[in-house]
Design brief:
Layout (H helix, E strand, L loop, with lengths): L15 E3 L5 E3 L2 E2 L10 H34 L20 H10 L4 H5 L11
Antiparallel strand pairs: 1-2, 2-3
Length: 124
């Protein structure tokens, strides 16, 4: 439904006023600028399912974080930087140099560290 709109003359702006609470008034009547949001049944069902899915996802993330922490504590996984370099790499300056030393010795660098991301810190 499209209504015919007409421009407001400048002298009509004098009839606008605001009170100390920030409410807008027009010629002594309060102008309602808010409207309640009303959802139909299926929109309410969809919104409820969305909230439930978000809560389940948040709970799953929390359980995953707690489980990872417990497994790390139980198996005493060392924190990055607490690993000592392999004996062959004591004089290496970084992981690349250590990997080259281990490859020349016929060893797999990933086996020496137990995986990617667990490389020790090196003295430079």
């Amino acid at each position: 439904m499209q209504e015919e709109l007409s421009p407001l003359p400048l002298d009509e702006f004098a009839h606008f006023a605001t009170d100390k609470n920030g409410n807008l008034w027009w010629r002594g009547s309060r102008v309602r600028v808010e409207q309640r949001l009303r959802l139909n049944y299926w929109q309410s069902v969809g919104a409820t399912l969305t909230v439930i899915a978000a809560l389940v996802g948040a709970a799953g993330s929390a359980v995953q974080g707690w489980t990872a922490y417990e497994v790390a504590q139980r198996h005493a996984v060392p924190i990055l930087g607490d690993l000592a370099p392999p004996q062959e790499c004591v004089n290496a300056h970084d992981a690349v140099e250590c990997a080259q030393i281990l490859q020349k010795a016929g060893k797999n660098p990933f086996d020496a560290f137990g995986g990617v991301g667990r490389e020790p810190r090196y003295n430079k």
